[in-house]
Amino acid sequence: MPWLKILSFLLYPTFYAGMLRLMVPIVLGALGEIISERSGVVNIGLEGIILLGALFSTYVGHKTVNLWFAIGAGLFVGLLIGLLHALIAVYLAGDQIIDGVGLNMFALGIGEVVLYLTWGSFATSPQLPREARVPSMGGFSPFVILTIGLALLSWFLLEKTRWGLRLKAAGENPVAAEAAGIDVYKVRVIATIIGSVFTALAGIFLALDWLGGYTKNVSAGRGFIALALVVFSRWNPIVALGGGLIFGFCYAFSLSIPSGIIADQVLYSVPYVATLLISMGFLAKARPPAAVGRPYKRV
Amino acid sequence: MKIMVLLRKYIKPISESIISVVIGVIVGSIIILLAGYSPLVFYEALFSGSFKHTRAFLDTLSYMIPLTMTALSFAVAARASVFNIGAEGQMYMGALVANIVGTFLRLPRILHPFVAVIAAFLAGGFWGWLAGILKTKRKVNEVVSTIMLNWIAFYIVNYVSTYHIFDPKAPYKTAYVLESSRFPPLVKGTSFTADFIVAISVAIVVFFLVWKTSLGYEIRAVGLNPTAAEYGGVNPERIASIAMFIAGGCGGLAGAFLVLGRFGFITTTLTNVLNWGFDGIAVSLVGRNHPLGIIISSFFFAILNSGALEVQVATSKGGQIGVPYELVLAVMGIIVIAVSVPGLLDLIRARLRRVKEVEKVAMA
């Protein structure tokens, strides 16, 4: 029974810790994007935000040897990018997709520049000191609880509060929303910034918790997987959490198969193939917010 | 009179592209200053890298080959309103297939490269078409699908080159393709290879295809307004898939030209073909998604790319390289962000007008 032996990893808690770890960044990114898109602003620069969040929290973590400063730096970067994207998407009525692509390119480039100029390496920063890393709670990351909490909070805010109603109105029909006295610009700017800060948390998690430093292209497509998860979840934070768990399970499963049975390349490509297949199966029925990606111009 | 109208039509987009580039250069300077280097030294090195002698200039021209192709990949899809950021993966597939055809098929000298190029076009085209069909049949957003396909292509090429077509003497790369399949250098001792002519010809063919044929008309009609196009008897889904096939084909050609022209092989981790696909997005946007604009802007980005290596040397201190090559990628990102703002020129003009009015009031 070699297969039973191989699958015995399912009995160990490390497998589930790994599954949750893989879930965290994509769910955080997806939550941010859900809030942003429901207000009508697409941000495909998730990948770049994750990179920059990871980069600057690592940088400040090394300089100050203080966890809170490091987290603060990552969040601040998220806030700045959100502000820039909101400025372009909302006030300048710019092309939101192109802006996101530019951000991803910029982040990839600047990541290498800072990596090399600060630590003299093109691949990875040195490990962060323990004082600047998120402590583990019995093998599990506190970010797991944070992610679950944020998913519930986002759902509550979007579905059960006045604020959520206004946000969704801006994303469905900005003209009607404006007529009803909602400041669409303001709502969209705030939603975009919150979305970007959530996504920056994913980068902070990768740098300060999981890896303990910055690595070249550390986001590895997670920002785009998060985008797929948004559509899969039909813009519902709780479904996104569930989807993230399924995804984490598949990914952890593929990583747990001992090497030599299947070629590494096949295992590495599992998350990307899975994302495609899941998108194909589920997306056909999903309906995005009506005004998503479309700039709203006040008359 | 007609010339004036034509000029007006082109001056605005061109000046907007130039402004975007200027913004990129300015922000780049700030980053260089923050890093503790002189922007002047940086930009001097950047441009001298391309113009200091003929050989450097020809090398710069050779960088235009992959850039033009991946930019066309983005542009053709964009004309049909499909946001193709999958030129990277399409290029990997093209490079792989060109490598296989160039190594394992025995054909006469002139014929061989063209067979390899056509095979690469089909491979890249298939990869692009997949994203097109996923979008039209299953409503999968092309931004997500093309990125996923990029990664999948990466691991396919990584797998095939690691286990099947590696060079036994140097397992980190594939064996050199047969000499009969190579595009020879147009000038001896440079990487300015014959595929440059093919690449420029492809750009011109794409121009005619998109602007002078009925298929091209349908592509642009779908891009401008799919509903109206449908009323006009065009099937938008079919057209989007066809556009993605052509786009993917162009991406595949980028890979083929890199393998059959400049390099003759791919490394198993694809390091020698990486990133041209993403650079192509910037090239296409600055070239206003127009084949002729792309030729011009790919020349500019070729200067950036070839100069970037020069910069590493010029800013080096004590044997260590200075500002790494990737800064150019960051500058490109800024340029793309600047391009995303429509009517950049109008914004600046409105601001200038306001300043003038304020001045007038102040004078009075």
Query: How many whole angstroms does the radius of gyration of chain B measure?
Result: 22 Å
Strand sequence of the main sheet of chain B, in spatial order?
Answer: 1-2
- The strand count of chain B comes to 2
CATH classification, class level of the domain at 25-219 in chain A: Mainly Alpha
Q: Say what the CATH topology of the domain at 25-219 in chain A is.
A: ABC transporter involved in vitamin B12 uptake, BtuC
Number of individual domains of chain B: 2
Q: Would you kindly provide a written description of the structure presented here, covering whatever features stand out?
A:
- The complex is a heterodimer of chains A (about 300) and B (about 375).
- With about 300 residues, chain A is an all-alpha fold.
- Chain A has a domain of about 200 residues: ABC transporter involved in vitamin B12 uptake, BtuC.
- In chain A, about 70% of the residues lie in helices and about 0% in strands.
- Chain B is mainly alpha-helical and about 375 residues long.
- Chain B has 14 helices and two strands.
- Chain B has a two-stranded antiparallel sheet.
- The longest helix of chain B is centred in the first third of the chain and has 33 residues.
Brief rundown of the structure:
With 299 residues, chain A is mainly alpha-helical. In chain A, 71% of the residues lie in helices and 0% in strands. Chain A has a domain at 25-219: ABC transporter involved in vitamin B12 uptake, BtuC.
Record the SSE blueprint.
The complex is a heterodimer of chains A (299) and B (364).
Chain A: H1 2-6, H2 13-38, H3 46-64, H4 67-91, H5 96-119, H6 142-160, H7 162-172, H8 174-179, H9 184-211, H10 222-232, H11 237-256, H12 264-268, H13 270-282
Helix pairs in contact in A: 2-6, 2-9, 2-10, 2-11, 3-4, 3-5, 3-9, 3-10, 4-9, 6-7, 6-11, 7-9, 10-13, 11-13
Chain B: H1 2-34, H2 39-51, H3 54-79, H4 87-104, H5 111-138, H6 142-163, E1 166-167, E2 170-174, H7 195-212, H8 214-224, H9 226-231, H10 236-263, H11 276-286, H12 291-314, H13 327-339, H14 344-363
Antiparallel strand pairs in B: 1-2
Helix pairs in contact in B: 1-13, 2-12, 3-7, 3-10, 3-11, 3-12, 4-5, 4-6, 4-10, 4-11, 5-6, 5-10, 7-8, 7-12, 8-10, 11-12, 11-13
